[in-house]
Amino acid sequence: MTFEQEQRHVYYDTDLKIEAYHLTGIVQPFPNHFHDYYVIGFVEGGRRHLWCRDREYDLSAGDLVLFNPRDSHRCSPRNGEILDYRAVNIPADIMKSAAHEVTGQPYTPFFTQNVVYQSDITSALNDLYTGIVEISSRFEKEEAFFLLLEQIFREYSSPFEQSSTAEPDNKIKAVCAYMEDHFSDNISLDDLTALAGLSKSYFLLLFTKQVGVSPYRYLQSIRIERAKKLLEQGIPPIDTAAMTGFSDQSHFSRFFKDFIGLTPRQYQKIFQTDKHSKKEASTNEHEH
């Protein structure tokens, strides 16, 4: 299958305030990165090799994928097979509010498994995805949303405070905070090693081990997440690139496409149509 047959459809639901993704015919590997939102997805077809939180998985049709915010992950095709994949992206504040609804108490969920092989939950996820795409009633979508979350919370979630994930040490935390506050600046490796008080080589090894991605990949992930927010607000891609620290629009578009699977302009179009319209984009549209 050729690159031109790749399709990426993205829908934004203004009732639930979540995104639904449908990727078909994908041959592209995705680099190591993370998101600021939760991802619940499943493989419809094809096989992928996934690396997430220092573990490796071989994915195939019927497998459920669960990512917490900041879970670093990457994937590549197995034996050149194409990927068909559906997912919903849930902002952290929406998830926390929904978790309170489901559990009846303040609750920030932490997915305890990143992959559930051959999971029956994919059916509930598909019901939610279909409700969003077919513009079902708010009642129907909310029911599908809460039923899906209730099942995941019951089987594959614990309170975030009880998660066993090791936190970075204070030096690395300070570097992360610096990049999040100064993402639009021209940050250098010298800046970060001076802040951490470490040699370049040791800093790179320590940061990558503790955070799960390299410092440069961390910075680019932060920039892409900030860029998404600006694009959603209608800021032109060329201005968004400058405001998020990218050297030029071409550089920005390349990184955005690698991380998100859409060009900045394609992503922005999702938020420029009314909520009763089909919102989709395809890689066959050669936009920058």
From TrEMBL:
It comes from the Bacteria. Gene3D superfamilies: Homeodomain-like (1.10.10.60), Jelly Rolls (2.60.120.10). Residues 173-270 form the HTH araC/xylS-type domain. Keywords: DNA-binding, Transcription, Transcription regulation. SMART domains: HTH_ARAC. GO terms for molecular function: DNA-binding transcription factor activity; sequence-specific DNA binding. This is HTH araC/xylS-type domain-containing protein. It comes from Eubacterium callanderi.
